[in-house]
């Protein structure tokens, strides 16, 4: 069998068209929460800091309290161009407080009564332009390196973000079952991403079947062990604030369960692509290979990949808790107390249950690939770079 690039291109026409249609729908789809803005009589605009006054700030060790007075020029909204005084209130929190300097661009909240400005509050430094620049550099390098495969990767990346923001989050806020909503989203994303890699052909079906089965195992184990560990969903950051904002009906524990398999789904898809592609290449080189032998080859690849991928998952989950671990060590907290602590137990569930999905997706994908790819003639060609780039 020979590689034919035009065949691969034709195979991906359908998935690309479907992804573009989905993108267009998501862009115009309302979340239903556009009118939920807290500050209805206020504008949030950019402002340039002209001068600052720190004379009323009180320093008590590491804690800073009081107010920083700023003179700013508004760069947007109905009062654009006006120079006004603004206040930056310090709450004694290093994580939340910020100080401004002349020349900074800030987000400010302008409260007004008709055409009269009542107060101007400093919100935070303006970072959106830098975030867009960072994202633009990443996407540009991706397209330059991977070509049309990179374009498909960008498309799946944007669709994934919009699905999370426009579908997942609003459904959870409305009180829909988090586990079923997240499972549905993962299935859609799996089909979308893998079809953009392979096109609508047997490899897509083989990899997607293995990935969905592996995610299913992760979902079941996440539900079981969250209950056994007696973990409440309030361990998630900002979850209690959500309850106090008027969403007491939400089941935070089920949202936590959904976050377990949602967080590991990217690594599961990546491993399913690796195993499926390896089995495909073996079958391409040995068209006469039997199903059992092809599955055995997939198992061998899966064993090698599981170790590094599981460690990657561990580092991804534990990285945000380095400061907490340092506090435990600095205070001489015994290891058994650390492991029993609720937040640590929650991360253990995240990491180990997510790793269960990785360990199971490898053999499951090997089986589905062996069954599907050794039966009939296969779709031609695969861009190996694309397989590693698009899979999240």
From TrEMBL:
Entry superkingdom: Bacteria
Keywords for this protein: Membrane, Transmembrane, Transmembrane helix
Segments crossing the lipid bilayer: 12-29, 132-158, 178-200, 212-235, 255-283, 304-328, 348-373
Keyword Ribosomal protein belongs to the record: no
Family annotation (InterPro entries): YibE_F
Pfam families: YibE_F
Protein name (Swiss-Prot/TrEMBL): Membrane protein
